[in-house]
C-alpha cells in the first residue's frame, strides 16, 4: 500500500511496490485520456531550493496532466526560507495547503529530516549529491522498457560517479535484483563514494569493477548510464587531458558495443554523448526523459491513493 | 610514579587511549560528582605505552555501549571490597545520538536548527558508522 507514504530513498519501496507503479505508468502511457482529470481538486507543491528544469517541470506537468493544481517556488529567495525559516517549519506550513509535496534541496539528508514534520507524502526530488529516487524510477522503468527485465543485467555507469546522485540511486535500486553486475567507469577522483562501495556493493556481494576507460569495457554492457564529467571536478589539468575523451560516447566507441545496448542519461547532456548517437536505436535518453513525466504521474496517483 | 589509592567500591575505566580520558570524564559528567573520582592521564602501560585511567568511588549508572563508542579498546572493572569482581567488555552501540557530528559539509545537520545528530552502526569490527541523514561514513580512524 503506497497511499500516504513518502519517497526519500530509492529503497523505500519494495520491488513489488515499484512494479505496481510501473504497471500504472504503462496504463497511463497507453491511455492518458483516462487519467486527465483524476486528480481534480488535488494540489502538488513543488519546493525547489535549487534550480532544476527537468525534475520540476516533469513533476508539474505530471500533476497538470492528471487534472490537479500546482503551487511552489523554484528558488528559496522568493519564499519565507529567505527569512530564515527552518525546513521543518516550511514543510509543516506547506503541508497545510497541499496534498503532496515534491522537494529538491541542496543539503544531503534534508528529506529524511523533513518527513518527520510532513503529514502529507513528501517526494525527494534530489538532495545534494545524495539521492534522486524519482530519477531512479524513471531509469528503472526505461531499463524495463528497453530490456523487458530488471535482472540479469550488466550495467555500466560512466562519468562523475562521486557527485552524480542519479548513479548512487540507480546502484542502490538495481542492486536488489538478481544477477546484476556493475562496471563503474570514472577517473579515480570521481569514483563512487565509500558508502556505496561498502554498504551496497561489498556488503551485498555484488560483482563490480572500477575502470578508468570506457572503450575497454563497453562491449560487456547491457545498459550504459552516462553522466556529465565537469572539467573543474578533476584535480589536475594533465588527468583531464588524458582522460576526457574516455567519457564521451560516439559511434566509433559504439562499434564495440552490443547491438541491443541501451544508452541512458539523466540529462542535461553537454558533450558526453555525441549528437551523432541520437539517431542510433541504442539511444534511449529522450524516451527516458518523457518516461520521467509518466512515472511521476504514476507515483503521484499511488501516494495520493487515487489509483 | 604518581600514586592513586585503590578504591573500595566503584568502577575503574582502564586502557583509555591517551587524550580520550578527559572526553569520557566530561561525557560521564564526573566534574559535578560529589563522590571521589580520579582522572589519570598519560599513565605508563605495558600494552599501550601510555594510557588514561578513570577511577570512580561510587556505583554509577554508565551506558557501557556509549562508552564503547567513545573508545572501544577500554576495559571497565567493577570493584567491590577493593576486589575486581567483574570485567566488562565493551561493544559499539547500534545507534549514536548527539555525540558526534557529521563531517559531510553538505549534510542537512550542518544547516538545520535543533536537529538531532544520528548515526547507525555499519561495521562492529571496524567501528564504522553512517550518518542517518546523508549516509556519510564515520569512523574513528577518520
List the helices and strands and how they pair.
The complex is a heterodimer of chains A (307) and B (142).
Chain A: H1 15-30, E1 43-48, H2 54-65, E2 69-73, H3 87-95, E3 100-105, H4 110-114, E4 122-127, H5 133-147, E5 153-158, H6 165-174, E6 180-185, H7 194-202, E7 208-211, E8 223-226, H8 237-243, H9 251-254, E9 262-264, H10 285-304
Parallel strand pairs in A: 1-2, 1-3, 3-4, 5-6, 5-8, 6-7, 8-9
Chain B: E1 10-16, H1 21-27, E2 37-45, E3 49-56, H2 64-70, E4 75-80, E5 83-89, E6 95-97, E7 118-123, E8 128-131, E9 137-139
Antiparallel strand pairs in B: 1-3, 1-4, 2-3, 4-5, 6-7, 7-8, 8-9
What does this structure look like?
The complex is a heterodimer of chains A (307) and B (142). Chain A has 307 residues and is of the alpha/beta class. Chain A is 35% helix and 15% strand. Chain A has ten helices and nine strands. Chain A has helices at residues 15-30, 54-65, 87-95, 110-114, 133-147, 165-174, 194-202, 237-243, 251-254, 285-304; strands spanning 43-48, 69-73, 100-105, 122-127, 153-158, 180-185, 208-211, 223-226, 262-264. In chain A, the strands form two sheets. A five-stranded parallel beta sheet of chain A has the order 7-6-5-8-9, with helices on one face. The longest helix of chain A is centred in the C-terminal third of the chain and has 20 residues, at 285-304. The relative contact order of chain A is 0.16. Chain B is mostly beta strands. Helix content of chain B is 10%, strand content 37%. Chain B has helices at 21-27, 64-70; strands spanning 10-16, 37-45, 49-56, 75-80, 83-89, 95-97, 118-123, 128-131, 137-139. In chain B, the strands form two sheets. A five-stranded antiparallel beta sheet of chain B has the order 2-3-1-4-5, with helices on one face. A four-stranded antiparallel beta sheet of chain B has the order 6-7-8-9, with no helix packed on it. In chain B, β4 and β5 (83-89) form a beta hairpin. The radius of gyration of chain B is 17 Å and the shape is elongated. The interface between A and B is medium-sized, with 19 and 22 residues.
Amino acid at each position: 500500500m503506497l497511499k500516504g507514504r513518502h519517497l526519500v530513498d530509492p529503497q523505500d519501496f519494495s520491488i513489488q511496490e515499484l512494479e505496481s507503479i510501473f504497471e500504472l505508468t504503462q496504463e497511463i502511457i497507453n491511455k492518458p485520456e483516462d487519467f486527465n482529470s483524476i486528480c481534480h481538486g488535488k494540489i502538488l507543491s513543488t519546493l525547489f531550493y535549487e534550480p532544476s528544469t527537468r525534475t520540476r517541470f516533469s513533476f508539474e506537468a505530471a500533476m497538470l496532466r492528471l487534472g490537479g493544481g500546482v503551487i511552489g517556488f523554484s528558488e528559496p529567495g522568493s519564499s519565507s526560507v529567505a527569512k530564515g525559516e527552518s525546513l521543518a517549519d516550511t514543510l509543516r506550513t506547506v503541508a497545510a495547503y497541499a496534498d503532496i509535496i515534491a522537494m529538491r534541496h541542496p543539503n544531503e539528508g534534508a528529506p529524511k529530516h523533513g518527513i518527520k514534520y510532513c503529514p502529507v507524502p513528501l517526494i525527494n526530488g534530489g538532495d545534494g549529491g545524495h539521492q534522486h529516487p524519482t530519477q531512479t524510477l524513471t531509469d528503472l522503468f526505461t531499463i524495463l522498457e528497453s530490456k523487458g527485465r530488471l535482472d540479469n543485467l550488466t550495467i555500466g555507469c560512466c562519468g562523475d560517479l562521486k557527485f552524480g546522485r542519479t548513479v548512487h540511486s540507480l546502484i542502490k535500486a538495481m542492486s536488489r535484483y538478481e544477477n546484476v553486475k556493475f562496471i563503474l567507469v570514472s577517473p579515480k577522483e570521481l569514483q563512487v563514494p565509500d558508502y556505496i562501495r561498502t554498504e551496497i556493493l561489498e556488503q551485498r556481494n555484488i560483482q563490480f569493477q572500477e575502470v578508468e576507460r570506457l572503450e575497454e569495457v563497453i562491449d560487456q554492457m547491457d545498459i550504459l548510464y552516462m553522466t556529465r564529467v565537469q572539467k573543474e571536478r578533476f584535480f589536475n589539468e594533465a588527468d583531464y587531458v588524458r582522460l576526457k575523451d574516455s567519457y564521451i560516447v560516439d559511434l566509433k566507441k559504439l562499434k564495440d558495443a552490443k547491438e541491443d545496448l541501451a544508452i541512458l542519461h539523466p540529462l542535461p547532456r553537454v558533450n558526453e554523448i555525441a549528437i551523432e548517437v541520437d539517431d542510433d536505436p541504442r539511444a534511449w535518453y529522450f524516451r527516458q526523459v518523457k518516461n520521467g513525466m509518466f512515472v511521476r504521474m504514476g507515483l503521484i496517483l499511488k501516494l495520493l491513493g487515487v489509483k | 610514579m604518581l600514586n592513586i589509592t585503590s578504591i573500595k567500591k566503584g568502577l575503574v575505566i582502564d586502557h583509555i587511549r591517551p587524550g580520550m580520558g578527559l572526553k569520557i570524564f566530561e561525557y560521564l559528567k564526573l566534574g559535578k560528582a560529589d563522590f571521589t573520582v580520579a582522572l589519570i592521564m598519560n599513565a605508563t602501560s605495558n600494552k599501550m605505552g601510555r594510557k588514561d585511567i578513570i577511577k570512580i568511588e561510587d556505583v554509577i549508572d554508565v551506558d557501557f555501549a556509549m562508552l564503547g563508542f567513545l573508545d572501544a579498546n577500554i576495559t571497565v572493572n567493577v570493584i567491590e571490597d577493593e576486589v575486581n569482581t567483574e570485567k566488562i567488555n565493551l561493544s559499539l552501540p547500534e545507534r549514536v545520538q548527539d555525540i558526534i557530528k557529521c563531517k559531510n559539509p553538505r549534510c542537512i545537520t550542518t544547516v538545520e536548527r535543533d536537529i538531532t545528530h544520528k548515526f547507525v552502526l555499519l561495521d562492529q569490527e571496524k567501528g564504522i558508522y553512517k550518518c542517518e541523514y546523508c549516509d556519510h561514513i564515520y569512523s574513528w580512524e577518520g
